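Lab notebook: predicted structure, single chain.

Context: the supervisor wants predicted structures on file for every construct in the current expression panel, including those that have not yet been purified. This is the next one on the list. No modifications to the sequence; it matches the entry in the shared construct table.
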Amino acid sequence: PRDRLAPLLGIFNGGRGASDTWFVVNVPQPGYYPIRIGYYEGGGGANCEFFSLTEPDLAGNVTRTLVNDTGGIEAYQPKLDANGNPILTPYIKAFGPGRNGANAPLTGTVNVWIEDGATAAGPITMKYDGVEVTPTITKDGTTTHVMYKPDALLAEGQTVPVEITIGDRVASWSFTTETGDPPTGDVAFFIEAEDFNYNGGQSKPEASVMPYLGGAYSGLGAVSPTDYDRASEGSSPLYRIGEDPQVPMNRNGDNDRGITEVEVNLKIGWIAEGQTYVYTRDFPQGEYNVWAGLSHGDAPDSGTMVAGSLQLLEGGTATDLGTFEAPATGGWGNNDLVPLKDANGQMVTVALGGTQTVQFTAGNGDFDYLLFTLPGAPPEAPRFTNIQKNPDGSITIEWTGNAVLESAPTLQGPWTEVPGATSPFTFTPDPAQPVLFGRLRAQ
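Prediction complete. Output recorded below exactly as produced.
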């Protein structure tokens, strides 16, 4: 199956004539392992062989043997059930935040979806940033959802390794939080730019079910100006085949959507101001902040801006929700997450729920996706909750929130951090210092 965290054993990505690519793979535990080979041919002659090599002899010669040939590595098709379907082991069908970008919100929430095989997935354990944690585990039919959210917000640009153990299998990846103007709420929903409506206002319900891996609108035409409105561009006729005017699309490597990592990802290019793309979705009820994945080839300090706006379409009426605007990103496909803001530069909160239609109106830059995040409650401000004098003369201080305890001899300072102080913190006053002030500095 398409296990999203299967280990990559080797890769060659480039142009060349016919030749060999060798990879050294260590398999410490004998057994039956599913192997997938992806082969892509850009042009010219094509050939692909899967073989093993012997150890070099004294002259340095090796012998290669095709897999399943005499003396080679034996390979088998999967066992089949009574209906002819493969009998599979549990596998990871989706996870997030993704490993290919740096779009994770500061909440640092991790999601993993595991599909049962012949047996149920489990037992399941998780390590987060090197520490064993207790995730929330729920089951819906044959799918197990594993979720963990740390108590405090992460730092911008922080990289966090994650390790999940499923039975006797260990899978791992790492993600990096967004920098600059990052989402501080969990991603609840996203829309791929290439998945605008088709056939005059129709939509695919699978694109409203998270985790969505992309690809639901492949090959579907669209009606202009109902589903989109732009001038025709003959370049890159990919994914949406048959629309007129032609919408150009490029593959893009930014697969991270915060909540999961998509498999199929294209961006809409050759943008001109005023182009529109319409999306009907079944939104979970909520009040969302909205972000657009936009890019431009000019440097961030060039003065060029990426831009766009968002409208809510109801009964033939378009209501403006806000605008996206930020400096160029220094590369086509090098996305920045640009927040939706009002005319005063404040983040917009959009109430959505059920089947609704939104429209992205282009300004400048390539357009990849929309993120809808649930801001949630702000982190609790640090505060003292108890100060107690103990019978032995010591004092115990308690507080809540993510903070550092500092002390000073006067209110004017100097303030210094109390080393190793965590709540509850007990200390014995120094008789030589009759007055001591304390405060909490938020981290």
